[in-house]
Write a structure and sequence with these properties.
The protein is of the alpha/beta class and 234 residues long. 38% of the residues lie in helices and 21% in strands.
Length: 234
C-alpha cells in the first residue's frame, strides 16, 4: 500500500469515526474525517482523498445526496456504509456511482480489504502500468485505461471504478458471454456473496450512459440465463 493514500470518512457516528481513523492509520493511511454531509464537498475539495468512506444515514444531508454532489465534481472512489438489510439504499447508491458498499456492523479488517481492492482498481494494475496499452477499442468505442473514461466519438464519458472494470473485462473479450459472478468478482477483486445482483445495477448505469448514442444502445447485451456480453458490431 502507498503510505500517502488519503481516506476521507464522512459519518455522524463519532465513536465509529474515531475507531476507523485509528485502525486505518495503523495501516499507514492518512485519514481525514467529517461528521456530516453538509461539510462533505468542502472536505472532498480540500483533502483530495484517494477514497471516500460515506455513511448513508446522516442528519441534515444524507449520504445519497452527498454522493450525488461528489459525482457531479469528482470521480474519486466511494464505499458506502449501509444499514444491514437496506437493499433499497444499497441499490440507489450503486446507481448513483458508488464503487462498493459495506453493511453495518462490519469488521474493520474487511473495510481495509475493500479499500485496497477499490483503490487498486481505480489506480491502475500494478507496477509498470504506465507502459501498458492505454486504450481498449471495440464496437466503435474506446476505453481509456489511464484516464478511466470511455470515449464515444468526440465525447468522453465518466465512469465509476466498477463500471470501468466491467467494460475493461468485456471489451478485452468482445462477443464473449460472462456470468454475473465472473463480472462482479473481476470488478470488485474478491468473491461475491451468493445472489448478489448488484451487477445488474452497474450494467444498467452503463447502458444509461450509452443511451444518448443510438449506435451503442445495444452494445451490452443480456444473455438470458447466462449473463452479459459486449457486442462488437458497428
Amino acid at each position: 500500500m502507498q503510505p500517502s493514500q488519503r481516506v476521507l470518512i464522512i459519518d455522524d457516528d463519532i465513536k465509529l469515526q474515531r475507531l476507523l481513523k485509528d485502525y486505518l492509520e495503523g495501516y499507514g493511511y492518512r485519514v481525514a474525517t467529517r461528521p456530516d454531509g453538509l461539510e462533505a464537498m468542502d472536505a472532498v475539495l480540500r483533502e483530495t482523498p484517494d477514497i471516500i468512506i460515506l455513511d448513508i444515514m446522516m442528519p441534515g444531508k444524507d449520504g445519497l445526496e452527498v454522493l450525488r454532489d461528489i459525482r457531479r465534481q469528482a470521480s474519486v472512489p466511494v464505499i458506502m456504509l449501509t444499514a444491514k438489510g437496506e437493499d433499497a439504499d444499497r441499490i440507489v447508491g450503486l446507481e448513483l456511482g458508488a464503487d462498493d458498499y459495506l453493511p453495518k456492523p462490519f469488521n474493520p479488517r474487511e473495510l481495509v480489504a475493500r479499500i485496497k481492492a477499490v483503490t487498486r482498481r481505480a489506480g491502475g494494475f500494478g507496477k509498470g502500468a504506465g507502459k501498458a496499452v492505454t486504450t481498449i477499442s471495440a464496437g466503435g468505442l474506446a476505453l481509456d485505461t489511464s484516464r478511466k473514461t470511455l470515449v464515444a466519438g468526440d465525447d468522453e464519458i465518466e465512469l465509476s471504478g466498477t463500471e470501468f472494470r466491467l467494460l475493461e473485462m468485456m471489451m478485452n473479450r468482445p462477443d464473449t458471454i460472462f456470468s454475473r459472478d465472473e463480472l462482479l468478482n473481476y470488478a470488485r477483486g474478491r468473491d461475491v456473496e451468493a445472489f448478489d445482483r448488484s451487477i445488474d445495477v452497474h450494467v444498467s448505469n452503463l447502458r444509461a450512459k450509452l443511451k444518448p448514442y443510438p449506435e451503442h444502445r445495444e452494445r451490452i447485451k443480456t444473455v438470458w440465463g447466462s449473463g452479459y456480453m459486449f457486442v462488437d458490431r458497428k
